[in-house]
Amino acid sequence: MLLGADGALKPTIFAEMSALATSTGAINLGQGFPDEDGPAEVLEAARQAISDGWNQYPPGLGYPVLREAISAHQHRFYGLSVDPDREVIVTAGATEALAASILALVEPGDEVVTFEPFYDSYAAMIALSGAVHRTVPLRAPHFQPDHDDLRRAVTDRTRIILINNPHNPTGAMMDRPTLELVVELANRHDALIVTDEVYEHLTFGQTHMPIASLPGARDRTLTISSAGKTFSTTGWKVGWMTGPHDLLQAVLAVKQFLTYVNAAPFQPAIAVGLGLPDEFFRGVASVLQRKRDLLSAGLARAGFSVSESQGSYFVVADAAPLGFTDADDLCRSLPALAGVVAVPISAFVTDEHKSDYASLVRFAFCKKVDVLERASAQLAQLSR
After folding, report:
1. How far is Cα 85 from Cα 16, in angstroms, rounded to an integer?
2. Which residues are bridge partners to 317 per DSSP?
């Protein structure tokens, strides 16, 4: 639920659209969860962990086997040396890591800078912390920030610059000059950097670059990721954060009063997943890229103007060429029009900027091929 300006509670757009899909029988391309299971080795490791008794509270930091696997993963893929005993915390998904970080590290009146559109939990947690939310717009079709906008947004009042890369909902990836500018501004204004990198392995044609790997970033950066997207285990809620020990200690002080700990038998299973060979990680990205291409082509045939997704589960399509200028209304009508559910990008922006994104729709392509083929065929009805 979200608290509206009038004080009334209302469902999130994801809850609303998923309920609409259920009630109408429409294909749900709104919420970003896969409809296929993850690797057999990871699933079997979870079953074995349950049988072996990994069913009680894990340590507050997470089981050592997973923290060591996270440390090894950061070094293997990015050359980052992370102490598994001092610089890693296991969390209840990236959502808890983000919540605990914001609540721990900002005071009322501090400013948090995000890129807009932004994942909805960012605004909710910033509001809950009492901080001021500043945004930098990402504009279609490429969704890259203007560097002058970024320079204006980050000031001495900025406590956190919150980066989501690869980006949800747009599927964009920030280039190195933008990441370097973030680091430069964080150092100039003594701000912290918090990064949400849950789609780090789901990129198309380019390699993910953690901002913590850039010069001047490591000592002020908390890197957050999770297993759900890479291993198709979104319901397990196993996430983690890495970063400087003193920052993690502050976050842990808040985290212990959120979930405390979580997902005991799933933690050793995800450790197995993080140790899978390179072929696995290349394979999941390759399969997802083909699904991106399939749905993107279907949207184009239906008459949408489609932005190229560089990573994540999502592609953004502009409905204006079809004559739909209000994506919010379109998404509520889409089950009747085409038997498909999607999410308006306006759900991810501040009220003052909704008009800038009014005709844009987010579609999820993390579904079975036959589902995407059926959705594409049904969406083609819009152009008739």
Report:
1. 41
2. 306, 361
Q: Which residue has the tokens 């239906």?
A: 302
The torsion region of residue 116 among left (phi > 0), alpha (psi -120 to 50) and beta comes to beta
Can you give the pLDDT at residue 145? 97
| pLDDT tens digits for range 165-206 | 999 999 999 999 999 999 999 999 999 999 999 999 999 999
DSSP state letters, 91-140:
ESHHHHHHHHHHHHH--TT-EEEEEES--HHHHHHHHHHTPEEEEEEEET
3-state percent helix, strand, coil for the chain, nearest multiple of 5: 45, 15, 35
End-to-end CA distance of the chain: 37
Q: Say which residue the tokens 């994104």 belong to.
A: 357
Region 367-372 average pLDDT: 98
Residue at token pair 């996270």: 70
Tokens of 253: 């002080």
Residues present in the chain in total:
384
Helix (H, G, I), strand (E, B) or coil at 318: strand
DSSP E strands, the chain: 2-3, 9-10, 27-28, 88-91, 111-116, 132-139, 144-145, 158-164, 192-196, 221-226, 239-242, 305-306, 314-318, 340-341, 343-344, 360-364
Strand pairing report for 132-139 and 111-116:
parallel
Handedness of CA 380, 381, 382, 384 (dihedral sign): positive
Confidence label for 317 from pLDDT (cuts 50, 70 and 90)? very high
58 phi and psi, to 5 degrees?
A: -80, 170
Q: pTM higher than 0.70 for the full model?
A: yes
Report the distance separating Cα 325 and Cα 42, nearest Å.
Answer: 44
How far is residue 211 from each of residues 93, 103, 222, 234, 335, measured CA to CA in Å? Answer: 20, 22, 10, 24, 40
The owner of tokens 């005071």 is: 107
Q: Is the peptide bond before 117 cis (omega within 30 degrees of 0)?
A: yes
